[in-house]
Amino acid sequence: AKGGKILILPGDHIGPEVVTEALKILDIIEEATGAKFERDFDLCGGASLDKHKDSVTEAVLKKSEEADAVFFGSAGGPEWGHSQPNPESGLLRIRKRLQVFANLRPCNFASKALIHRSPIKPEIITGVDFTIIRENCGGAYYGEKTEEKDYGCDPWEYSRPEIERVARVAGALAMQRDPPLPVWSVDKANVLASPRVWRRITHEVFGKEFPEVEIRDQLADSLAMLLITKPTAFNGLIVTDNTFGDILSDESGGLTGSLGLLPSASLAGAPAAEGGDSPVLGRNNAGGVVGLYEPVHGSAPDISGKGLANPVAQVLSLAMMLRYSFNMHREAEVVERAIAKVLDSKDDGGLEVRTGDLGGTAGTREMSEAIQGEVRRLLKAG
Ligand code: NAD
Ligand code: IPM
Ligand code: MN
To answer: Which partner for 103 in 232, 266, 269, 300 could form a disulfide, CB atoms 3.0-4.6 Å apart?
Structure first.
């Protein structure tokens, strides 16, 4: 039987608001398919700090290891501005504990409505379809830190195994398409040492293990510019380090016009292709890959508590969880198609229900209900 064990960590501010709505979609999928998902709810971030004086407890870290997937909302907010540790560290500790080293952050324009919402001209944005694969367990985020009154240091380090494993995920994902997707390796090898090692080892891995895949180098700063002026030139995969990947994936939010649309999946190995073999590295008990699923956006304290947040990024993260951790490819696609239908304008056969970040007047619940209705309809239609 399909399904498995999910640890749900809604987190802070809009986190719980959008997680609640996403789980309603999971209810519908359970009902329609007979899949069973065991759900355990716990705390992370500011919510955990308030109760346990720590951003995540050892008990929650253990539970995250026992789950087939972790479904995460968002952590942080101004009320924990001076706390030590800070709320965000809870999320970083879970990523590290689960060794979910490959953070997939797709950016595509499946819905015509999004093309018109983008601040970029339609002729430039039409057809954009890239996925950032952000290294998620190393680099400046995890080096031995020093923080003193007048001095701070975050060593930015990468060693061979960390680079090889993320390069292999990029290669495996590229090979899941025919012809293989092109891959951009993004670094600052012109200035920094660890990016030079990154570039050399990435080329070694592709040369030996994925000779059919076209691998190209791009400096991170110029990529930031080109993603605005020529975004379709990067259709395919962009594999990059933790810090560059963080920044460039928020830039995807700039392309779409809202962060409320962008999901992410942090994986402990390369996921299987639809109908393909199960993953070797990072396999969970559900036959998928161990994963942590969360939107690219944060806790949006500026709009929380008002029912205004766009639930799409969280719901798309749920779709990624179904696909990668539970091998439910068809259901993932249904969710994605339902969202495209809701976002599309009435002229294009859509429903045109949109939250404020997309220029509409719908609230979180209204948007979620429209998606739920469409998911039900698509599941029934078979
Ligand atoms: P943010 O992503 O929370 O918000 C940036 C802007 O986008 C805000 O104007 C916000 O209202 C808007 N926005 C974000 N998500 C939205 C949604 N679903 N619907 C509509 N509008 C949305 O970034 P920030 O304000 O810089 O950070 C707020 C807090 O979140 C900080 O504490 C930060 O560290 C934390 N954060 C957490 C995560 C995470 O838990 N994964 C990710 C990023 C930031
Ligand atoms: C993200 C966030 C996190 C990061 C923070 C909240 C730790 O910005 O997921 O993009 O920097 O990785
Ligand atoms: Mn970020």
So the answer is: 266
